[in-house]
């Protein structure tokens, strides 16, 4: 495969891994003496959403550092993520308020590091499982029973008095204090909640301007098997104060997680961490000649806004293998992009027999050196971070 | 676009602003479960800021090129208004009668205010509004979860509550601001055109209960329906703010007659009309003048004892003629099963009689 040959040409490493440490039992105390890794989350700018206020608030958003710890036992694995957030946003009502939150995403199938799912909700035939926790005061559905009909008009309080107070208690007891959900997805828009009872737990706590989020799950269930030498994860955070929700978030690229007591699969980790060495000047020239008619990034805004994915942070949340794949085989991973009704003049893909065919042509006519230079340049497209 | 499309025609000349439609909808669907602040049907006074406040300027809809426009999500307290109670209990202890909280806006806040100077040129009229069940809904286009769908059988636009994750881009995308966020369940909800009623051949509650009999309901492609005849054949019913480019399917007969203005001495200014032309154009497009001319001609016909098919329809003699629905069609289309049982829960909500009143 052409791409593999390219990878061997340019290997050089640039990023840290997450190491999971073996503990006797997985609980919040077990994290105390564990070494942490620093990760960087980049603002999602591939798509822009149609909320005027949110767009204005998230303009020129910078990247953010976060720290991750991981532990595991024979049966379970847990992550602890801490990130700075100067505002504690817990959703407790209102139509235009949003909650802080975090999510962890895993590819369902991850044996080939060159063909991982797309970072934003996976892609066709490359599905992901993700776990989401939002800081909610309480909400009423789904609560396992779907009992939204157990609520009545509050304004009858005077009349019904005690009966209604009792009824209130019942409704309150049915409400969930945690907005905690698991999803499967094989592409943006396809995200579907897993309603089976899964063995996982998420917690969020806020202290001294920092959120600490923990996530615990079994190593292996019917949706996901993490019982291997190495697997990739991606982490996302939402800032409610900036009206973050959905794709309006900060996200990492695929980061390898290894186990301290297991053999390391160094090749796999290297593939994910690859920082391509190339001629950045030549790469820039190639990108501006070949890409800017459709793609915007940074100050390059020549293409119609909705024409194609915006590349402003593509180097922040894409692994090198995805960039190579997108240039050489653009129809392998095709983003759903905008609703085709919303921007009908700019479909990102056409459909042939229910398969998405990207509007972007393959650039496999370029020579290897050119592609390497392009990817090297694309990897530099990312926002500055907060440190 | 759906295979067939249900539509409603509302005759603004007959709307008396009694809010019976609003109450019919509220008691049927939105008096519970986090929907308390929502009015899937509201009647607002024009000119006025409406509900939610200033909705006409909050963005959404499509531009000329067909791109979805950015929009603003209305604020609960400031734009919708929070339902409030009064301090009935405290009044007994000789406290002044007042709301329990300080309301800032509500669904009918600027009722009957209108514009102009009394008695020279003041004016207003009512606009009842429900979801427009658009051909190309802004809400549907904005949803990043594909949680909003338009039924092929009748074009009713619905939210799939299982898929909805409460991102609220739909609210920004709807130029009519007729989709609402339910804070209790963290999902969006909207007018469902009473589809459980429609599937049984009954009109939506708002239309059934309308005191002025201003609402006609039917399929746009059904040539026997009054809706078809007014919209397609006589072309006297126009969508609201068609410049939002969503293809709205609720049509309005624009206000035809308004009293003349008075001059400073209280004399009638001949051939004047109180409703400014430009405002009607903003609401209904330039076609409004042709429609008004046609309808005035019809009124004149009737005054001269001639036939008027249009006015006969607008009078609304019989519900059977006003509402052209067909439960057999739905039975064939969907089988005997309801397409979607979610909203049947509304009717099963615990009855108040299950509580013991305190005496």
Largest sheet of chain B: 5 strands, mixed
The largest pleated sheet of chain A is described as: 6 strands, mixed, barrel
Low-confidence stretches of chain B: 338-359
Number of domains in the coordinates of chain A? 2
Radius of gyration of chain A: 22 Å
Number of strands of chain A: 15
Total number of β-strand segments of chain B?
Answer: 11
Question: Can you describe this structure?
Answer:
- The complex is a heterodimer of chains A (387) and B (359).
- With 387 residues, chain A is α+β, with helices and mostly antiparallel strands.
- Chain A folds into 2 domains: 16-159 and 165-263, Immunoglobulin-like (Sandwich); 280-378, Immunoglobulin-like (Sandwich), CATH 2.60.40.
- Chain A is built from 8 helices and 15 strands.
- Chain A has helices at 2-10, 52-57, 157-174, 266-273, 280-290, 314-317, 320-328, 368-378; strands spanning 18-22, 37-43, 64-72, 76-84, 101-107, 128-134, 179-185, 192-193, 200-207, 210-218, 230-238, 250-251, 255-259, 349-352, 355-358.
- In chain A, the strands form 2 sheets. A 6-stranded mixed beta barrel of chain A has the order 1-3-2-12-11-13. Chain A has a two-stranded antiparallel sheet with strand order 14-15.
- In chain A, strand 7 (179-185) and strand 8 form a beta hairpin.
- In chain A, helix 7 crosses helix 8.
- Chain B has a 5-stranded mixed β-sheet. Chain B has a two-stranded antiparallel sheet with strand order 2-3.
- Chain B has one domain (6-348): Alpha-Beta Plaits, CATH 3.30.70.
- In chain B, strand 4 (148-150) and strand 5 (157-159) form a beta hairpin.
- Chain B has 14 helices and 11 strands.
- In chain B, 47% of the residues are buried.
- Residues 338-359 of chain B have low confidence and may be disordered.
- At the A-B interface, helix 2, helix 3 and strand 8 of A face helix 2, helix 4, helix 5 and helix 14 of B.
């Amino acid at each position: 495969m052409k791409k593999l040959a390219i990878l061997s040409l340019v290997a050089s490493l640039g990023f840290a891994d997450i190491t999971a440490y073996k503990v006797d039992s997985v609980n919040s105390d077990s994290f105390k003496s564990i070494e942490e890794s620093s990760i960087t989350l980049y603002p999602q700018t591939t798509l822009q959403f149609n909320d005027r206020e949110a767009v204005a608030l998230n303009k020129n958003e910078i990247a953010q550092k976060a720290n991750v710890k991981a532990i595991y036992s024979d049966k379970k694995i847990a992550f602890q993520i801490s990130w700075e957030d100067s505002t504690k946003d817990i959703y407790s009502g209102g139509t235009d308020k949003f909650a802080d939150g975090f999510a962890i995403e895993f590819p369902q199938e991850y044996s080939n590091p060159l063909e991982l799912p797309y970072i934003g909700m996976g892609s066709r035939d490359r599905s992901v499982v993700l776990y989401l926790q939002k800081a909610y005061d309480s909400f009423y559905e789904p609560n396992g029973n779907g009992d939204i009909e157990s609520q009545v008009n509050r304004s009858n309080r005077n009349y019904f008095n005690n009966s209604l107070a009792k009824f209130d208690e019942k409704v309150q007891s049915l409400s969930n204090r945690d907005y905690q959900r698991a999803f499967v997805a094989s592409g943006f828009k396809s995200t579907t909640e897993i309603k089976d009872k899964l063995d996982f737990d998420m917690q969020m706590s806020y202290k001294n301007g920092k959120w600490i989020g923990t996530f615990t799950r079994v190593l292996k269930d019917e949706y996901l098997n993490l019982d291997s030498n190495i697997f990739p994860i991606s982490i996302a955070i939402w800032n409610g104060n900036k009206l973050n929700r959905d794709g309006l978030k900060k996200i990492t690229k695929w980061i390898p997680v290894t186990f301290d007591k297991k053999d390391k699969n160094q090749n796999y980790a290297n593939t994910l961490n690859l920082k391509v060495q190339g001629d950045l000047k030549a790469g820039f020239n190639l990108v501006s000649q070949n890409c800017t008619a459709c793609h915007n990034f940074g100050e390059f805004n020549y293409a119609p806004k909705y024409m194609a994915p915006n590349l402003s942070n593509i180097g922040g949340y894409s692994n090198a293998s995805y960039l190579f794949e997108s240039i050489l085989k653009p129809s392998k991973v095709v983003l759903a992009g905008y609703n085709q009704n919303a921007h009908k003049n700019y479909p990102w893909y056409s459909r042939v027999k229910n398969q998405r065919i990207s509007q972007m042509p393959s650039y496999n006519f370029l020579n290897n050196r050119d592609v390497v230079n392009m990817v090297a340049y694309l990897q530099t497209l990312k926002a500055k971070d907060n440190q | 676009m759906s295979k067939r499309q249900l539509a409603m025609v509302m005759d603004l000349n007959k709307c008396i602003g009694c809010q019976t439609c609003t109450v019919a909808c509220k008691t049927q669907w939105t008096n519970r479960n986090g929907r308390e602040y929502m009015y899937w049907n509201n009647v607002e006074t024009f000119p006025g800021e409406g509900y939610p406040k200033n909705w006409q300027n909050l963005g959404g809809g499509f531009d000329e090129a067909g791109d979805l426009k950015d929009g603003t999500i209305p604020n609960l307290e400031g734009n919708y208004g929070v339902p409030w109670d009064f301090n009935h209990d405290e009044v007994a202890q000789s406290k002044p009668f007042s709301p329990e909280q300080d309301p800032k806006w509500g669904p009918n806040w600027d009722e009957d205010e209108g514009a102009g100077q009394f008695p020279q040129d003041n004016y207003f009229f009512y606009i009842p509004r429900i979801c427009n069940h658009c051909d190309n809904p802004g809400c549907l286009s904005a949803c990043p979860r594909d949680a909003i769908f338009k039924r092929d059988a009748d074009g009713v636009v619905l939210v799939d509550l299982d898929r909805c994750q409460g991102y609220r881009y739909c609210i920004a995308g709807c130029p009519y601001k007729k989709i609402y966020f339910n804070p209790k369940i963290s999902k969006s909800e909207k007018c469902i055109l009473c589809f459980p009623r429609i599937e049984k051949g009954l009109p939506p509650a708002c239309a059934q209960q309308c005191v002025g009999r201003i609402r006609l309901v039917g399929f746009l492609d059904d040539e026997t329906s009054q809706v078809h005849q007014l919209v397609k054949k006589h072309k006297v019913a126009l969508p609201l703010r068609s410049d939002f480019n969503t293809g709205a399917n609720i049509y309005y007969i624009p206000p035809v007659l308004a009293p003349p203005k008075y001059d400073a001495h209280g004399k009638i200014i001949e051939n004047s009309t109180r409703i400014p032309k430009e405002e009607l154009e903003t609401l209904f497009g330039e076609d409004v003048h042709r429609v008004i001319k046609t309808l005035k001609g019809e009124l004149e016909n009737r005054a001269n004892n001639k036939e008027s098919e249009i006015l006969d329809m607008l009078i609304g003699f019989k519900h059977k003629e006003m509402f052209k629905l067909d439960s057999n069609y739905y039975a064939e289309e969907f089988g005997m099963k309801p397409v979607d049982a979610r909203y049947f829960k509304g009717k099963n909500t615990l009855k108040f009689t299950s509580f013991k009143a305190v005496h």
